[in-house]
Specification:
heterodimer, A: eight-stranded antiparallel β-barrel, 10 helices, 11 strands, 27% strand, globular, disordered N terminus, disordered C terminus, B: mainly alpha, two-stranded antiparallel sheet, 10 strands, 5% strand
Chain lengths: 380, 553
């Protein structure tokens, strides 16, 4: 058996094992002649539309938690808590974040202090998709009342409460600490790298039935001499112990070189700002523009992002929030107020924020684990 | 005797018995032999010897003077190489560094077979035992008393001055390693008892010649012992050693060195690519590209004992992570290592000349070069000499950035209208243009500057449509077998074959052809031949030269 054949065999057999090992949201029957496209996501940014003059934030950006702490201190307290000003700004961060009545960490206990309300986005234009199918933002069985945006192309009914929440927090904007840091972290250490695999592609320009799967890579990014992401590198799927850590899949289609998917709940790996986590995006749908040479793609994922999941991330960022000019308690309260999706069946309050994520990816070969390894682990 | 052998072959054929090619070999034509030479060790030979003698843990630092490629091989250039003062300085530094490592506390107990009576003073007996031991391998013959006395004296003096036996040993060893007896493979001769008045290589010189040929390193203990016993002057004894060497894992090392030389892969050390134009081409890609071709060659020719000509058509190769990005194929070990890989049938990659190594090496830093590629095929693989371009050649038409000629074919067509250029370009371009769908970094493409690339062409009248077709034409080209025979023989003897040796080369080619172009058979034929070891005294050489002159006139 040639190596090429062996590889196909591995892919085919792995697919069979996965079908039994994982609950896939779609039914899918690839054509024997079909192709597989693979991509590795290189940058992932919260979809915040930034106008030239920051018109979306008419009152400016929010202030950070240390600024709030500093403003709340009297002159003697400032002298006492900073050793008469001798403590560096970095050393002050730890005092600033433990500014609860009993020195509680306010990111871990965001309701323990009463901070100024978060300045939120007041713009009308946003990235994203009409997730609820509702043009006016009124409540539905699965959503809470919210204000819609208009898409950059004029599409009405765009849902993106995550933008409304974070668009005026400096650290989440494209040049802010959180986003830049997270992308650089992944680039430098290879953690939390997401692979996208499109299978069953009969025609790369137009195909009405493809499957889009998401995995975590265990190999670091391949970079060229200039530090740029190199396309067509091979990445192995994380299947430690024979179990796939990720593998969510949704059904999709390609029209004129643009891949879009149906909605589905997906789990994506994430690493950034020294935080490892799963990103569960509910009702997620993908839009991916394939480049002419197939080497690079731009994409957008939109769906509902849990408030608790968001606060786990933001709350864990700790002192980094200072340089990112962010404040956990203000964000926490606003997030709950702005949540517009997946209402809690008990309370009726929404638990997730509509959101969008812009990402870039380069073409990659996705290496599945050997079928025997997955099979034997499944049998245990 | 010869008639008897030939007749037995005919009888075997007539009776339907399998023809055993080696048993029916025609005797090789007689050769005069060349003058004895001193061949400078190549860098790889130097490194191999140190690793064989002291182990791979010894680091060999420093740089080696470049050799001049002659008749397509650096090995031939090494025969005429001399050591420059700067080169000697480098050898001295390397020798001192190696010697220090050998006597280091980490290695001395393993590498020095005896312990001195006192570490703080010389011990001539222990030093003698050590130098005799390593000297036999370094000098490729047992040391004479004089040869032992010198390093022992150095070790004694240095050991006394430095107050340390091992520092003394290091001094003596370093001295041995800058000796011509180590740095040159010297053709020592002795009177030939079967041909009174003539000379022959002595057993040790024969051992060195066959060892550097097949293994690219110094003779091992068994080969030196055979030389010591005179077994290499005996056909049976020589054959036994050659067969043993051909069956050794070291043959791979030897053949890697040969093909590295033949394909000019030493040029990978200075390959440069424009990172703006070819961002995917990195130092790792260059290193792996060379390694991929050598692995392909070794696997096909040594491991599989395949047909040499299949090197130009094989789809089987090996793949690494860095190469996978250029070839755009998946590699299930992207973290490092190699996997066997076979390009699918109908793929645009098949054969050595479609691999990244060939495409990238024979290209410019920022663009491909049909001329360099065509020239490399003609010179390296077909043994045809292409003259250097004239010094005043006008490249303006070719390099004009505003030229309406978008593809290399268009530009070369315009360039080749100059009479001074046309002759050579007719030889190189039709085959080099076949590889134009592989860019200067080894990546596939179909267009250049937006214009479709036409990779069709012809090789000596055989038409093809693309690089894979060129590979097939190469496979069947009658110049391919004699070329590899010429190169292997040159490599083995360290010299360019003379005109009078053409019947001998024809003889080897015939044997090679009979063996279905299996490289090991060619190696065996040459390694076990009288021709490999033939030397002539100056008088005989002068007579042969006169005879050759008469032939020409």
């Amino acid at each position: 058996m040639s190596n090429t054949k062996a590889f196909s065999e591995i892919t085919r057999r792995t697919g069979a094992v996965l079908a039994t090992a994982l609950v896939l949201a779609v039914s899918f029957a690839p054509n024997a002649q079909s192709k597989t496209l693979g991509f590795v996501i290189t940058t992932w940014n919260t979809g915040l539309y930034e106008s030239k003059f920051v018109d979306e934030c008419p009152e400016g950006f929010n202030i950070g938690y240390d600024e709030i702490w500093w403003r709340g201190l009297s002159k003697p307290e400032r002298a006492r808590l900073t050793d008469n000003g001798l403590k560096s700004r970095l050393e002050r961060y730890f005092n600033a974040i433990r500014r609860g009545p009993n020195k509680e960490d306010v990111c871990m206990n965001p309701t323990i202090v009463k901070d100024p309300p978060l300045l939120t986005v007041e713009g009308k234009v946003s990235y994203g998709a009409n997730l609820d199918g509702n043009a006016d933002g009124g409540a539905t069985a699965n959503t809470c009342k919210h204000e819609n945006f208009t898409g950059l192309d004029g599409t009405p009914g765009i849902d993106n409460q995550m933008y409304r929440l974070l668009g005026c927090v400096y650290g989440f904007r494209s040049y802010g600490q959180f986003e830049v840091n997270a992308n650089e972290n992944r680039k430098s250490n290879g953690n939390g790298m997401t692979l996208i695999e499109v299978t069953g592609v009969d025609d790369e320009k137009n195909d009405n039935d493809v499957k889009v799967s998401f995995y975590r890579a265990i190999d670091q990014y391949t970079l060229d001499g200039g530090g740029n992401f190199t396309p067509f590198a091979s990445y192995r799927i994380d299947a430690a112990g024979g179990k796939l850590r990720y593998g969510s899949a949704v059904k999709g289609r390609i029209e004129n070189g643009v891949l879009t998917t149906d909605e589905g709940d997906v789990n994506l790996p994430f690493y950034g700002n020294y935080t490892y986590m799963n990103q569960e995006i509910k009702d997620m749908r993908l839009r991916l523009e394939l480049s002419e040479d197939g080497a690079k793609v731009n994409g957008m994922a939109s769906g509902y992002y849990g408030v608790d999941q968001l606060m786990f991330y933001i709350g864990g960022l700790g002192p980094i929030s200072s340089t990112a000019i962010s404040n956990c308690p203000s964000i926490y309260l606003a997030a709950h107020e702005l949540a517009d999706g997946h209402p809690d069946p008990q309370t009726g309050k929404c638990t997730a924020l509509s959101s969008a994520y812009n990402f870039r990816a380069v073409a990659a070969f996705i290496i599945h684990p050997k079928a025997e390894q997955t099979a034997s682990a499944d049998q245990k | 005797m010869h008639r008897v052998k030939f007749r037995s072959c005919l009888i075997a054929l007539a009776t339907g018995m399998a023809l055993i090619v080696s048993g029916c070999d025609q005797p090789a034509p007689p050769v005069t032999g060349a003058a004895p030479t001193m061949r400078l060790l190549s860098e790889s030979q130097y490194r191999n010897i140190i690793a064989d003698l002291f182990g791979a843990q010894i680091t060999v630092g420093g740089s080696f003077d470049p050799l001049v490629r002659t008749n397509g091989l650096l090995t031939v250039g090494a025969t005429n190489a001399r050591i420059t003062p700067a080169g000697l300085e480098q050898f001295d530094r390397m020798a001192r560094s190696i010697a220090e490592q050998v006597v280091s506390e980490a290695n001395r107990d393993v590498l020095i077979p005896c312990k001195p009576a006192s570490v703080s003073s010389p011990d001539d007996a222990c030093a003698t035992a050590f130098y005799k031991n390593v000297g036999r391998i370094l000098y490729r013959h047992p040391l004479t008393d004089d040869e032992v006395r010198s390093p022992v004296a150095v070790a004694a003096a240095a050991g006394r001055d430095l107050g340390n036996f091992y520092d003394g040993i290091a001094s003596g060893l370093a001295g041995m390693m800058v000796s011509p007896s180590f740095l040159f493979s010297i053709d020592t001769t002795e009177p030939d008892p079967s041909l009174p008045g003539k000379v022959r290589l002595d057993g040790y010189a024969k051992a060195a010649r066959v060892s550097f040929f097949l293994w690219n390193t110094t003779p091992d203990d068994q080969l030196l012992t055979a030389a010591e016993k005179g077994a290499l002057h005996d056909k049976k004894g020589l054959n036994a050693q050659v067969d043993r060497m051909l069956g050794s894992l070291k043959l791979e090392t030897g053949m890697r060195a040969f093909f590295n030389d033949m394909l000019a892969f030493d040029d990978f050390a200075k390959i440069e690519k424009d990172s703006i134009i070819y961002p995917s081409f990195s130092a790792a890609v260059a290193e792996d590209a060379k390694e991929q071709s050598l692995r392909t060659i070794v696997d096909l020719l040594i491991t599989q004992q395949g047909d040499y000509r299949d090197l130009f058509t094989t789809r089987k190769t090996f793949m690494s992570g860095p190469l996978g990005r250029i070839y755009r194929v998946p590699v299930d070990r992207p973290d490092g290592g190699w996997i066997p890989y076979e390009f699918p049938e109908g793929d645009q990659r098949a054969g050595l000349i479609t691999q990244i190594s060939f495409a990238a090496l024979y290209s410019h830093p920022g663009r491909s070069s049909p001329t360099l590629r065509g020239r490399a095929i003609r010179e390296s693989l077909l043994c045809q000499k292409i003259p250097d371009p004239p010094g005043d050649v006008d490249f303006s038409l070719f390099n004009d950035p505003n030229s309406p000629n978008k593809t290399a074919r268009d530009r070369l067509s315009a360039h080749a209208t100059q009479p001074a250029c046309a002759g050579c370009h007719k030889l190189t371009d039709p085959i080099g243009l076949a590889m134009e769908r592989i860019d200067g970094a080894g990546q596939l493409r179909t267009t250049e500057s937006g214009a479709s690339i036409d990779p069709s062409g012809d090789l000596d009248g055989v038409k093809f449509t693309d690089a894979v077709g060129l590979g097939k034409a190469m496979r069947d080209n009658p110049a391919v077998p004699p070329c590899i025979v010429n190169r292997v023989y040159s490599y083995a003897t360290g010299r360019t074959p003379e005109r009078t040796e053409q019947p001998l080369l024809n003889h080897f080619e015939k044997q090679f052809t009979s063996a279905q172009f299996r490289l090991p058979k060619l190696l065996q034929s040459i390694a076990a031949s009288d021709a490999l070891f033939a030397v002539a005294a100056p008088e005989a050489r002068a007579a042969a030269a006169l005879s050759e002159k008469d032939d020409k006139s």
